[in-house]
UniProtKB/TrEMBL annotation, chain A:
Residues 229-441 form the ABC transmembrane type-1 domain. One of its GO terms (biological process) is phosphate ion transmembrane transport. It is a multi-pass membrane protein. Pfam families: BPD_transp_1, DUF3333. InterPro entries: DUF3333 (IPR024573), MetI-like (IPR000515), MetI-like_sf (IPR035906), Phosphate_PstA (IPR005672). The chain crosses the membrane at residues 39-61, 227-254, 274-294, 300-324, 345-367, 423-444. Keywords: Cell membrane, Membrane, Transmembrane, Transmembrane helix, Transport. Belongs to the binding-protein-dependent transport system permease family. CysTW subfamily. It is found in: Cell inner membrane; Cell membrane. CDD domains: TM_PBP2 (cd06261). This is Phosphate transport system permease protein PstA. It comes from the Bacteria. GO terms for cellular component: plasma membrane.
UniProtKB/TrEMBL annotation, chain B:
Transmembrane segments: none annotated. Residues 18-260 form the ABC transporter domain. This is Phosphate ABC transporter ATP-binding protein, PhoT family. Keywords: ATP-binding, Nucleotide-binding, Phosphate transport, Transport. Signal peptide: none annotated. The lineage of its organism: Bacteria, Pseudomonadati, Pseudomonadota, Alphaproteobacteria, Rhodobacterales.
Length: 452, 265
């Protein structure tokens, strides 16, 4: 400071032509590079958007038809001799009449409708069953058993059309494809055309696709997502109930209380590693531990939830720790400085500030778990199992059930092309749930955003 | 500038509040504080000065055991407040910190209302029996923090909405609300403008009546203005400790002289 620093005097004259008005080669090159980089970025974003549009577009295009279903309005004469041979209208005795008894009734009603509309056809009246779903017979029977007083009357039913008829109205089934199909003839399609003109065959929104149960391989028109949705719901309850408290407690301990030593380092590394373990590994672990060793019921949402909890925990722990880390240390100092204990400092000051991050991480983790299929395959939550609504909460956790993504997988692998449409429709329902969860995450973050 | 303090220094009570002997602090392999002995008086403002990294803040944090929160810090030696060893195994740092309040370099109000900021300490220490009591404590603390008049109409507005100087006075009010006996201040004015600094300095002078105040500062003018005792730290050593007037007019150690005349640091 004392000895004057020697500043080299720029004795040489200023190089000529160094004006800032004209850009020199170096600057031009630099500007070009910058512009190029910006173009790459825009191109990458545009490519991403294009992919997203194609993806969503194809999902909507393929799946939206699943939400529509074809119904036939047909007046059915409930012949007392067939459905109630004893004539005492006792639902218990009438229950002995199976769908075999009812099928001819519906077939006759169908033939009668065709005749009444004056449709000329060479289809044998006995072959009219190709028009409606096998589920329609059960539909009629259920209604009769519930209302025995209807016996002997002619009641108009809205019965499910068969998947071929439904496909015909949705352009999936054509007269060409029918030529190779032994389930239905071109003559049936003529009848459908005429009935459609008369307003007896209608396509309308199909709530049963959203809230109904899965159906057997041969009845795609009856299959719905509702039971699998409940399966997913009960699984998410298990995941939320276990992974949130365990994950948050573990992160708080690791972040705020645990000493920094070799052991905690190893734990930390392993948590990061667990987050990268393929989900099918968790599935086989669940199969070995929960089902084979602990003998929990197979295919139960409880077991699915446990497996997904293992999978979600690392995600929640990592995001919670990041949220805790982002709380400025000055807040901890302030709390400790006025004599708060470490736990008070964490629970009164740090945790509320970390809440938005924790909630966001949890919901993202849940959304991930909701869309997870692979581990469910291994614990048997796939197949023709989502057929009955659970009777209560306990059965919701313990009875065999599927989950939304597993149901989609199940539909996609079934042979009937009508299930293809339903798989896409299922994806739409799943995506709606995921979007809703992400929206909730964003809203919660906005709401709890630190208000400094 | 500091000669007018000579008369005020006379008011200072001469009883020792904090007594430190052979205090050493290690941060991992770094020896941050080396054999520091110092006696800090009650009802006195003691300033710690010295170049950055000389250990003055570290030493300050020993007094309320804030170094406990740093895993790699190891403190040895003997620090007594009113003759009681603060590193005794029986001492709960929570009780110690209620007795030894602290104000930090950057104003750090909780992201809560002004009222809740001040009420938090009394609440967790059970100083108020009911809401009325708590209101009184909060008002008293805010008055002592010389900020009552500015915030009395918006006690439930967020403390973080105040200006920097107001926030720092709020933090001081928060610190005095728990009725401490010692107040540690770690560069309380370094983030403030000259006007806010002036207000805080006035406040420190007020606080001297009730507390033993220890202030770490980078500004020698500030040390000269507010303190009666000054300690000069250099590279972890306590080089010189004495009356502020003495240190600034007639330093004994050549290093002190170099520092206050601006040649090292």
């Amino acid at each position: 400071m004392t000895d004057a620093t020697q500043i080299p005097s720029s004795g040489a004259a200023r190089p000529a032509g160094k004006s800032i008005i004209t850009t020199d080669d170096r600057t031009k090159k630099r500007n070009a590079a910058e512009k190029r980089f910006r173009m790459y970025g825009i191109a990458a974003i545009l490519a991403g958007i294009a992919c997203l549009v194609v993806l969503l577009g194809s999902i909507l295009l393929n799946g939206v038809t699943a939400f529509q279903q074809t119904f036939i309005q047909v007046p059915v004469y409930l012949n007392p001799e067939a459905v109630d041979p004893n004539g005492n209208r006792d639902p218990e005795e009438m229950g002995s009449a199976t769908t075999f008894t009812y099928k001819p009734i519906v077939v006759d009603a169908m033939a009668a409708l065709v005749e009444e509309r004056g449709i000329e056809t060479e289809i044998d009246p006995g072959d009219m069953d190709a028009l409606f779903s096998a589920a329609a017979v059960a539909q009629v029977r259920d209604r009769v058993l519930a209302n025995p007083e209807l016996v002997g009357e002619t009641v108009t039913f809205n019965i499910l059309a068969s998947s071929r008829v439904d496909g015909y109205l949705k352009d999936r089934v054509t007269r060409d494809s029918v030529a190779r199909d032994k389930n239905i003839d071109a003559g049936h399609l003529d009848i459908v055309d005429e009935l459609r003109a008369e307003g007896d065959v209608v396509k309308r929104f199909n709530w049963d696709f959203i809230f109904g149960a899965d159906a057997s391989e041969s009845r795609p028109e009856q299959a719905g997502m509702g039971v699998a949705m409940l399966g997913s719901f009960f699984m998410m309850l298990v995941v939320l109930g276990l992974s949130l408290p365990i994950g948050v407690a573990a992160s708080i301990y690791l972040e705020e209380f645990a000493p920094q030593n070799r052991l905690t380092d190893i734990i930390e590394v392993n948590i990061s590693n667990l987050a990268a373990v393929p989900s099918i590994v968790f599935g086989i672990l669940g199969l070995a531990v929960f089902i084979q060793f602990m003998e929990f019921p197979q295919s139960a949402p409880l077991v699915g939830g446990l497996v997904l909890t293992l999978m979600t925990l690392p995600t929640i722990i990592i995001s919670t720790r990041a949220a805790l880390k982002s709380v400025p240390p000055s807040i901890r100092d302030a709390a400790l400085g006025v004599g708060a204990s470490k736990m008070q400092a964490v629970f009164h000051h740090v945790l509320p500030l970390a809440m938005p991050g924790i909630l966001t991480g949890t919901i993202i983790g849940l959304a991930q778990a909701l869309g997870e299929t692979a581990p469910l395959l291994l614990i048997g939550m796939v197949g023709y199992i989502a057929t009955n609504y659970p009777d209560g909460v306990a059965s919701g956790f313990l009875d065999p059930n599927s989950a939304m993504p597993a149901q989609i997988y199940e539909w996609a692998k079934r042979a009937d092309p009508a299930y293809y449409e339903r798989a896409w429709g299922g994806i739409i329902i799943l995506l709606v749930f995921l979007f809703a969860m992400n929206a909730i995450a964003i809203l919660l973050r906005r709401k709890f955003e630190r208000r400094w | 500038m500091y000669d007018n303090r000579a008369s005020e220094s006379a008011v200072t009570a001469d009883d020792i509040k904090i007594e430190a002997k052979r205090v050493n602090v290690h941060y991992g392999t770094t020896h941050a504080i080396k054999d520091v002995d110092v006696s800090i008086l009650d009802k006195t403002v003691t300033a710690f000065i010295g170049p950055s990294g000389c250990g003055k803040s570290t030493f300050l944090r020993c007094i309320n055991r804030m170094n406990d929160t740093i895993d790699v810090a190891r403190v040895t030696g003997d620090i007594r407040i009113d003759g009681e060893d603060i590193n005794d195994a029986r001492v709960d740092p929570v009780q110690l910190r209620a007795k030894v309040g602290m104000v930090f370099q950057k104003p750090n109000p909780f992201p809560k209302s002004i009222y809740d900021n001040v009420a938090y300490g009394p609440k967790i220490h059970g100083l108020a029996k009911n809401k009325g009591d708590l209101d009184d404590i909060v008002e008293r603390a805010l008055r002592r923090g010389a900020i009552w008049d500015e915030v009395k109409d918006r006690l439930h507005a967020p403390g973080t909405g105040l200006s920097g100087g107001q926030q720092q006075r709020l933090c001081i009010a928060r610190a005095v609300a728990t009725e401490p006996e010692v107040l540690l201040m770690d560069e309380p004015c370094s983030a403030l403008d000259p006007i806010a600094t002036g207000q805080v300095e006035e406040l420190i002078d007020e606080l001297r009546r009730d507390y033993s105040v220890v202030i770490v500062t980078h500004s020698m003018q500030q040390a000269a203005r507010v303190s009666q005792k000054t300690a000069f730290f250099h590279l972890g050593n306590l080089i010189e400790y004495g009356d502020t007037d003495e240190i600034f007019t007639n330093p004994k150690d050549p290093k002190t002289e170099s520092y206050i005349t601006g040649r090292i640091g």
